[in-house]
Amino acid sequence: MPSGHALPLYALASWLLTEALGALMVRSWIAGGGIRAARQRPARSDAMSLPVLAGHAGLNLIGLTFWICFVISGAMALAWLALAFMAPAIGLGISTVAIWTPYPGGRAETAPEPAKVAAQPAVMREDELKRRLADEELAAQLVDELLNRNFGQNPTRPVNWNLRPLIPLGHGVLAIATFLLALLAAIAAV
Predict the structure, then answer these.
(1) What is the CA radius of gyration of the chain?
(2) Could you report the per-residue pLDDT of 89-112, keeping only the tens digit for each?
(3) What are the strands, taking DSSP E only, across the chain?
(4) Gap between the Cα atoms of 61 and 89, Å rounded
(5) 59-77: per-residue pLDDT in tens?
(6) Could you read off the pLDDT of 26-37 as tens digits, one per residue?
């Protein structure tokens, strides 16, 4: 590592955090039956492609290995090799976002009661919506119905936030930050 430059270490720390979030997502994917679903890929269009996932992880781990060697030795060619492997890894990672957000993991979905589904129309006609919004009392009822439908019968109960999508978001943001830190470190090493 070039003396006096902390950028390679910052990039390494960011890279390791990104890898940790990626490992968490892969663990969750495997636990949620991801490998089984990927093997049924021709039958399931929402399944993750094993070659894409393996390519993403493999290229990134090779790049990380080159980066660690660069941090230890200070050889600039290793930094550029690490970036050369990281760039397509990020591309493969971005290609998984459309299928894998929020990432799988066995979240239990509660099925609505059949009586409630039949009683509530899925879409309100435009003329009915205009009529309800024009009348103050009907508009208040509409708001109450929406609150009850979205928050249950008790609109004052605490909202159960689902923070699971923040994991792949954090992984992606850290990947971009890592690439930029590594690029700056490689340029500074010149």
Answers:
(1) 24
(2) 999 998 887 666 544 444 444 445
(3) none
(4) 9
(5) 999 999 999 999 999 999 9
(6) 898 888 888 887
78 contacts 8 by C-beta, under 8 angstroms: no
- DSSP per-residue codes, the chain: --TT--HHHHHHHHHHHHHHHHHHHHHHHHHTTHHHHHHTTTT-TTSPPHHHHHHHHHHHHHHHHHHHHHHHH--HHHHHHHHHHHHHHHHHHHHHHHHHSSPPS-PPPPPPPHHHHHHS-SS--HHHHHHHHHSHHHHHHHHHHHHHHHH-S-TTSPP----TTHHHHHHHHHHHHHHHHHHHHHHHH-
Residues in the chain: 190
Phi, psi for 125 (deg, rounded to 5): -65, 150
Q: Please state the separation of Cα 158 from the chain's center in Å.
A: 25
